[in-house]
Write a sequence for this structure.
């Protein structure tokens, strides 16, 4: 009869979650042999996905604690090794399925794909993307971000990822780094130095976006946000080709000239079959401590773009020094200073964006926005 401690150990190890794959290590094939030799400590084998697994210490610590809970004061030894190439291949197939596909976010995917676009640069589009992602993750959604702004990538720094942070390579699959419970990938993670310049033509841009969608394992997130480069160029057209069912949020500033340019970026998305679902206005008028309104960039641009598309204005994000400083510090304002007017506007915009009668991927959210 098998030693009952073996079953208890497996049950406890089933509570240990791989920090990158977000699944129990027992489901991932990371638990090897468990044996109870006569007159010797219990032997437990743990298999990491790769030699340089960045969260190896966390996994080992949690595994040891799980074994200790299962066996109490009985002596045990936890041996930590690495999966074989065949085991990694089996893991990849188990996660993605054995049938090859272009990418996992096709029309039958339960993931809601939302592209954040703008007509011109410098309007805070990436800051909006990072804060929408952090707000959604804080509300319990599984969120991924693709920094598709290849020439002006900034998502890693806005999410506070340390310089040099890279995805973990498991065979041909890449696991995106996680910050603030948001999984993110960016071309900036693959450059040799901070001073390296990206100067690519259209085919390379298309291939990069395609590889991010195909080779980076996000799992089955509720929401996948894409931070697009400003304007109506190659990446926007590639998105329409690769993800024609995606939704688009247009970011604009209040002045009429900027709003007209922003409308064009959304119009291109509609031409490629995507659906504009909302507008977010940044640099909106702010109210000073004495009640004075500061409308440095005018007003009404967001409302006008929303009217032309026939979609809701999801939020007016006022000018905020705190929004800027939190972005520089790598902590989204929705988490660092949730009561700041800009944080309130961004958090409400996130909720208006994903609110549905039932949550994404069939999950009831219970979130109400008045």
């Amino acid at each position: 009869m098998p030693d009952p401690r073996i079953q208890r150990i497996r049950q406890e190890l089933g509570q240990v979650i791989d920090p990158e794959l977000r699944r129990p290590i027992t489901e991932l094939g990371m638990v090897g042999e468990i044996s109870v030799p006569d007159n010797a400590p219990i032997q437990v084998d743990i298999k990491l996905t790769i030699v340089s697994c960045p969260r190896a210490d966390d996994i080992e610590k949690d595994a040891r604690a799980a074994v200790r809970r299962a066996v109490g004061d009985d002596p045990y030894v936890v041996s930590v090794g690495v999966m074989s190439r065949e085991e990694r291949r089996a893991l990849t197939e188990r996660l993605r399925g054995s049938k090859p596909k272009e990418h996992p976010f096709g029309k039958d995917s339960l993931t809601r794909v939302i592209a954040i676009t703008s007509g011109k640069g410098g309007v805070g589009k990436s800051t909006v993307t990072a804060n929408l992602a952090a707000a959604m993750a804080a509300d319990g959604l599984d969120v991924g971000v693709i920094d598709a702004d290849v020439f002006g990538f900034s998502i890693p720094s806005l999410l506070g990822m340390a310089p040099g942070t890279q995805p973990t390579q498991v065979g041909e699959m890449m696991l995106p780094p996680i910050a603030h419970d948001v999984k993110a990938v960016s071309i900036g993670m693959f450059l040799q130095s901070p001073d390296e310049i990206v100067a690519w033509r259209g085919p390379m841009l298309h291939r990069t976006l395609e590889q991010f969608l195909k080779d980076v394992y996000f799992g089955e997130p509720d929401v996948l946000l894409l931070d697009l480069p400003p304007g109506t160029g190659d990446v926007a057209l590639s998105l329409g080709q690769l993800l024609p069912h995606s939704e688009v949020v247009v970011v604009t500033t209040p002045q009429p000239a900027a709003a007209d340019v922003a409308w064009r970026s959304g119009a291109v998305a509609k031409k490629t079959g995507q659906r504009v679902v909302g507008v977010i206005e940044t640099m909106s008028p702010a109210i000073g401590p004495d009640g004075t309104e500061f409308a440095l960039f005018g007003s009404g641009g967001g409302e006008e773009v929303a009217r032309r598309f026939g979609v809701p204005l999801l939020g007016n994000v006022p000018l905020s020094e705190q929004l800027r400083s939190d972005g520089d510090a790598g902590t989204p304002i929705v988490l660092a200073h949730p009561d700041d007017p800009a944080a309130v506007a961004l958090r409400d915009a996130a909720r208006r964006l994903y609110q549905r009668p039932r949550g994404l991927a069939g999950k009831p959210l219970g979130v109400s926005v008045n």
The chain has two domains: 4-96, 112-357. Confidence is low (pLDDT under 50) at residues 356-370.
